[in-house]
Amino acid sequence: MAAARSFLALLLLTAATAAFAHADEGRAFDITTAASTPRKVLNGGSDGHLASAASQAVSALKTAVEAIESVLNINAPGALGASNEVKQLSGLDNFKRVIATEKKVVVMFTANKKCRGCKAIESVYADMSEDYAAVAFYIVDADAEEEIAASFADLLYRLPAVIAFKDGDQFGYAIGQDVLGDLVHLLERLVA
Hints:
This protein is about 50% helix and about 20% strand. The protein is α/β, with parallel strands linked by helices. The strands form two sheets. A five-stranded mixed β-sheet has the order 3-5-4-6-7, sandwiched between helices. Helix 1 packs antiparallel against helix 2. The longest helix is centred in the N-terminal third of the chain and has 28 residues, at about 45-70. The chain is globular, with a radius of gyration of 24 Å.
C-alpha cells in the first residue's frame, strides 16, 4: 500500500505542477489525455489563471486517482497493498515448519533488551510487509528464542538482522546499520 500511495502522490504532484505551468501560459491541461490546448482564461489576470488551473488540477487529479486505483485494484485481496501482517515467530520446530512450508519468507531477528534501534526498524519492516504481499514477514526476538538464534549465530553478530528464505532454503541476508537499504534489494531479488 505504501508503494502505491507513494506512486499516487508522485503522480498527483506531477499533474498539479503541469496544470499550473500550463495555466501560467494561458493554456488548459488535461491529464487524462495528456494533451494541452491553447485557450483563453475567461476570468482574466493571474488570479483567473490560478483559479482555472486549480479547478482543472482538482478535476484531473480525481479522475487520475480513480483510474489508477481501478487499474491497480488496490483494495482487492492479494493485490498490491493488500494487508500482509508481520507475525511473531517462536519455537524452533515452528520456525522450521514455517521455513519449510512458506514459499518466500523474511525473518527479522531483534533483541529488544539490547538493541535500541530494533524497535524503530520494526515499524519500517512492518510497512515494507505491505509492499511485498507475496512474502511472509516474521520477527524473532533473539533474546527470547535462543534455540532459533543459535541456528544462525554466524549471522547474528549484529542486530537487527534479516534472513530471507525461498522454497525452504536460505536465500540471503541483511545485517546491521544499513539493514533496511539492504533489505529492499534483498526483497526485490526474492520476488523476482
